[in-house]
Amino acid sequence: MTSWLFLLVCLAGAALVWNVFRPIRAGARLSAVSFFLGWLTGELALHHILWQGVATVVFVAMGALDAWPGRVGLAIAIASWAALLFHTVRGFEAGRAVARALEEGIGPGAGARTERLEWGPILAPFPIRHPDVERIRDIRYGRATAVDLCLDVYRPRSAPPGAALPVFFYVHGGGWMIGTKDTQGLPLMFHLASQGWVCVNVNYRLSPHATFPDHLVDLKRALAWLRAHGAEYGADPGFVAVGGGSAGGHLAALLALTANDPEYQPGFEDADTRVQACVPIYGVYDFVEPGGTWHHRELLPVLERHIMKTTLAEDPKAFEKASPLHRIGPDAPPFFVVHGAADTLVPPEEARAFVRALRERSRALVAYAEIPGAQHAFELFPSVRSQLVRNGIERFLAVVRSAQVGEGQARTGSKGYEPTHSEPALQEAQKL
After folding, report:
1. Considering 138, 175, 200, 212, which has the largest number of Cβ atoms within 10 A of its Cβ?
2. Catalytic-labelled residue, pool 207, 376, 383, 386
């Protein structure tokens, strides 16, 4: 009996590993389950091997190898562990993918120095924190429908008084209906703050109680608050980059592409809501044809019923206005689009179409990194992939910031920096 039970446990572990390499893409429910299991197994591969190893030792001590099913189970377990080690090593491909993206989007030399890793957080990923970073929680930036809207600020503990540090503004995901600033974006927030950034992680109203564009209005209100009060926390409100994952990637892209649009700034129409760069990660970019690149058709009913509160047939213009793909203009800020090649929730084809449109219509820098083996939400743990992508994001933002101030431009207070994107500035930035 012990041998058969051990075999079943090993087969279950092997199925989890198989799902990492061959995720299910058809059907919203199956793809969601496939994502969740593949995400936990793939990004915590070493920990998966550890718990399976402990279980194997227990089963062997109980006599699991006394019969042939146990010996078959052990062979399956060893093969599974080898596959997970391969997947872990494959994570280093993220560094090469990011380097290629920066080289193609910015120029020769831009992809240098994206490979450094911190093994401590990889081996012990929880809790996610950094000793050099101070986190200030639950700062109220507004109020809507009797609910306080709050954000967290991450900043270097060693920042001198009066420091003016560049800002990274993060938007959490969760399908526009769940999610929180307390659980998403943390590895990126702590890392950038440790490198001299002020990072802001924002909560906003969620559907189904909120109806689009409530989500975007809240984020613009947070950005206006940052421009007015960021200096109190050591931020330079003249350079703000925005990013986010999944639905947060969608909203971050919209925030970047609807700068100063009074339709989304009721009561604060004069506030400056421009951003200087955008880094959407595995985002959704098209509400008009959500089935065009998706492997299932369930997204549109969710958008109609819970997010937009209208149908595409009744109000196609509303869906177009909510689609970053349809809001791109020549004055879009620089973009670094990141997506996982193994994403089962939002297919990489969605990101590719968005990047093609950016390169056709925008005058700014556009870089695109498609990360081999990466699932949706891959960067929420400080894994190998997460760290290498994080390093690339830091590099991209440094290049953009240097390009925008590299020719001696003066700071202009709440109005921010005007992007120059001049060739001499970019060449200088690439030396950093």
Report:
1. 200
2. 376
Shared-domain flag, residues 149 and 65: no
User: For residue 339, how many C-alpha atoms fall within 13 Å in the half-sphere facing its CB?
Assistant: 27
Q: Which pairs with CB-CB distance under 8 Å and at least 24 residues apart come from 57-65? A: 59/2, 59/5, 59/6, 59/9, 62/2, 63/2, 63/3, 64/2, 64/3, 64/5, 64/6, 65/3
User: Which residues on adjacent β-strands are paired with residue 33?
Assistant: none
Active-site option among 343, 362, 383, 386: 343
Reported as a single tens digit per residue, the pLDDT across 246-300 is 999 999 999 999 999 999 999 999 999 999 999 999 999 999 986 566 655 778 8
Q: How far apart are CA 250 and CA 248, in angstroms?
A: 5
The tens digit of pLDDT for each residue in 385-421 reads: 999 999 999 999 999 999 877 644 444 443 333 333 3
The yes-or-no answer on residue 343 being catalytic is yes
CA distance 432 to 429: 6
- Given a contact cutoff of 8 angstroms between Cβ atoms, the answer to whether 275 and 223 are in contact is yes
Q: Write down which residue in 72, 90, 108 finishes a domain.
A: 90
Domain of residue 136, CATH code: 3.40.50.1820
101 and 79 inside one domain:
no
Write out the residue range of the structural domain in which residue 23 sits: 2-90
Instruction: Report d(CA 368, CA 173) in Å as an integer.
Output: 20
Which residue in 235, 227, 224, 161 sits closest to 192, CA to CA?
A: 235
On whether both 117 and 139 belong to a single domain, the answer is: yes
Alpha-carbon span 143 to 267, nearest angstrom: 13
Same structural domain for residues 59 and 102? no
Q: What is the maximum span of the chain, computed from C-alpha positions, in angstroms?
A: 77
Chosen domain end from 45, 74, 90: 90
Strand order in the sheet with 235-245: 133-144, 147-156, 198-202, 165-171, 235-245, 277-281, 335-340, 366-371
Contact partners, residue 107, CB within 8 Å, separation at least 6 = 426, 427, 430
pTM (whole model) above 0.85: yes
